[in-house]
Amino acid sequence: MRIPELIERLTHLVGDDGLVLDAEGQAAYVRDWLGKWQGSTAVVARPRNAAQVSAVMQLCHQTRTPVVPQGGNTGMSGGATPDGSGAQVILSLNRMKRIREVDPVNNTLCADAGVLLAEVQEAARAAGRFFPLSLGAEGSCTIGGNLATNAGGTAVLRYGNARDLALGLEVVLPDGRIWNGLRGLRKDNTGYDLTSLFIGSEGTLGIITGAVLKLYPAAAGRATAWGGAATLPALVQLLTRLQAACGERLTAFEMMSASCLELVLAHVSGASSPLAGRHPYYVLFELTDTEPSGLSALMEQAAGAALAEGLLQDCAIAMNEAQARAMWRLREGISQAQVRAGKAVKHDIALPVSRLAAFVEEAGAALAAEFPALPVVNFGHIGDGNLHYNVLLPPDVAAPEYARLTAALNRRVHDLVAQLDGSISAEHGVGQLRRDELRRYKSPVEMDLMWMIKRALDPNHLMNPGKLL
Ligand code: FAD
Ligand code: MLT
Ligand code: ZN
């Protein structure tokens, strides 16, 4: 179908105000947050509800029009950016913003896919409950995008990732049919786990339009600390000690290297280090509980033991909410600081926690030998075995050299990850960034299984082509 006719038919389905047709309005949709990918589209369609999504998908199915689903467009793997052909329609969920139901007795919340993560958290809070998914982009990313990427963030250690926090989904299939799987059940063994299948599928199997999410009791107290350590093995040992001493009260254990903190201090206004000295590694760790009494004492005891044992060289415990927030600002400023510092080759890897230190030692030595001029910015959710092992490039690096270095660095880092039984994609998704890498590291059997599912659900290959597979 010709583009003007497609636009005319889409106008009937979602209204004039449901389409973005001008280049200026489309600018925020065709470029990703990192500024790494730039695509183009003839039209951004913004349906208001699942019925409208279904109508748009039926039209795209009939006309064989490829579709790129998009939530908050904060993804880090280029998954929500269309290609440069202009032939792909962007289907944005950003007008689907209804909290459909909060059930405090069942501890569930049902939301449209376009509700921002921060809005889900707020709705849970208003009901005296807690929705634990938490990440730096929570004010801009959508719950649909979180589920489509199986997002992680800073509370996975205690509560799991997005997949662990969803009980049911509503999905519009590539042919426009609506699957209503919005069940708020913690037990449901009625066959294949379709909810889990769509979670993490990065818009390649269907459009998530709604979700039933798990809620938890609201935490009544938290204790936050910032420690400096000499080595990564010391931090891994500290993690084990804290888990033994504090159990599930340990909700966050976030690491950053010295060079990473320096980057934040240089690029984030108002940032200052909680500790006087410089340490090779830093950790932000937090305890939370529904019963606040005793939490501060537990933190003081745990931090004191870590200092006495030499696992930490220094430690600051937040004395109030403002100090805790300042510590979190350092952690959450890392992504922005990296963008301001220039180009980076980003690795989002997962390893068994027991092998993190071996990876960092071996990768550090290999990169120092082969790329001595390139600084490594290493940080991440080490309680989950997830490192963002990024390598900074000179700000003026030319495109061919950027591509050459990306390929060479990926090979060193990802080969080592594979040797240590890790994953080359922990929480940001595969998108277009790691699509070729995925083929290299997944077994032919696993790739074949994924393709069989893809062909069965999307035989015309219209859902987010060029991403993931
Ligand atoms: P988008 O970027 O719009 O889309 C991401 C992918 O999901 C695309 O493939 C898209 O096609 C697909 N998609 C989106 N919505 C739907 C839908 N409704 N149905 C089907 N497919 C859909 N990620 C983490 O995991 N942990 C972090 O700690 C973290 N920190 C971040 C910090 C910052 C400052 C930024 C900018 C990003 C961070 N991210 C993090 C990455 C990003 O926020 C997550 O991947 C988030 O889940 C993406 O949500 P989104 O709504 O922006 O999705
Ligand atoms: C984070 O943990 O801050 C993120 O996943 C974002 C990033 O890697 O930049
Ligand atoms: Zn992360």
UniProtKB/TrEMBL annotation:
It comes from the Bacteria. Pfam families: FAD-oxidase_C, FAD_binding_4. SUPFAM superfamilies: FAD-binding/transporter-associated domain-like, FAD-linked oxidases, C-terminal domain. Keywords: FAD, Flavoprotein. GO terms for molecular function: catalytic activity; FAD binding. One of its GO terms (biological process) is respiratory electron transport chain. Gene3D superfamilies: 3.30.465.10, 3.30.70.2190, 3.30.70.2740, Vanillyl-alcohol Oxidase, Chain A, domain 4 (1.10.45.10). InterPro entries: FAD-bd_oxidored_4_C (IPR004113), FAD-bd_PCMH (IPR016166), FAD-bd_PCMH-like_sf (IPR036318), FAD-bd_PCMH_sub2 (IPR016169), FAD-linked_Oxase-like_C (IPR016164), FAD-oxidored/transferase_4 (IPR051264), Oxid_FAD_bind_N (IPR006094), Vanillyl_alc_oxidase_C-sub2 (IPR016171). Its cofactor is FAD. The keyword Flavoprotein applies. Residues 37-218 form the FAD-binding PCMH-type domain. Belongs to the FAD-binding oxidoreductase/transferase type 4 family. This is Hydroxyacid dehydrogenase. The lineage of its organism: Bacteria, Pseudomonadati, Pseudomonadota, Betaproteobacteria, Burkholderiales.
